[in-house]
Write a sequence for this structure.
């Protein structure tokens, strides 16, 4: 698949033939919450142990969600001061993953600030950009470590209860998941796929609110769910740092349109 050139946002209602729909997902959260680990896990099925926390970049991967192709673009953000300057990607995003670490209470408080800021922006928009709240690092709930005596010591490191996350999500009408970027690829993949599904559902709700007039001398209009995700090209937001935001496109590796990706700069992958 050829690289996609970005220009100014434009309006279009028809999905071009052979072009998959697009879904722009922005991953938000405090530094150290595991945003990059989740992004790379989704794209590579691998876990990273080291990365540049100041690197903000956008990646793309062609996926098949519910038997429908979609070009998923993921922005791994690098906000230094929380949601203070989040305006740069609000208009670009189709959906938001807002991440905190269950072993860091401060990351949960920052996460709440993001939820409030994004909700304030998206309120009243049609369609709205769905928000998914993510509690990451559930593998750290009980952490086993060795001792000088050869014993295994189990430490309970959870600082944010699951009920806290569920309560926050219910308060703002968000979906809520707890995952581990370290352990489980399927759960991480489901986060991003569920974001695509929510974008489709919001588009369907928005269309249902609009009156549809069909001329008698024309064939009825077919509204497939694939056409609900517009492939309109949006202008990329300005990165938070001096580093240029780049978009790397995926190429299908098989006739089954399996997820593909190019190597992510700035990461050590194991």
């Amino acid at each position: 698949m050829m690289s996609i050139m970005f220009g100014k946002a434009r309006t279009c209602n028809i999905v071009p033939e052979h072009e998959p729909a697009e879904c722009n997902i922005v991953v938000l959260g405090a530094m150290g919450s595991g945003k990059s680990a989740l992004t790379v896990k989704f794209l590579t099925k691998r876990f990273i142990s080291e990365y540049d926390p100041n690197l903000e970049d956008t990646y793309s991967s062609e996926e098949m969600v519910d038997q429908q192709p979609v070009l998923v673009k993921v922005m791994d953000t690098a906000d230094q001061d929380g949601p203070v300057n989040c305006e740069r990607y609000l208009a670009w995003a189709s959906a938001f993953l807002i991440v905190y670490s269950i072993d860091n209470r401060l990351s949960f408080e920052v996460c709440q600030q993001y939820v409030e800021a994004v909700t304030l922006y998206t309120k009243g928009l049609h369609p709205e950009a769905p928000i998914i709240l993510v509690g990451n690092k559930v593998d750290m709930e009980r952490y086993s470590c060795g001792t000088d005596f050869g014993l295994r010591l189990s430490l309970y490191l959870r600082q944010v209860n699951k009920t806290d996350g569920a309560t926050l999500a219910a308060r703002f009408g968000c979906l809520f998941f707890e995952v581990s970027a370290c352990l489980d690829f399927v759960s991480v993949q489901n986060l991003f796929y569920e974001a695509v599904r929510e974008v489709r559902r919001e588009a369907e709700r928005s269309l249902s609110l609009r009156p549809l007039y069909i001329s008698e001398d024309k064939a009825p209009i077919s509204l497939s769910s694939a056409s609900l995700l517009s492939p309109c090209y949006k202008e990329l937001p300005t990165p938070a740092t001096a580093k240029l935001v780049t978009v790397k496109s995926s190429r299908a590796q098989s006739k089954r349109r399996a997820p593909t990706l190019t190597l992510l700069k700035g990461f050590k992958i194991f």
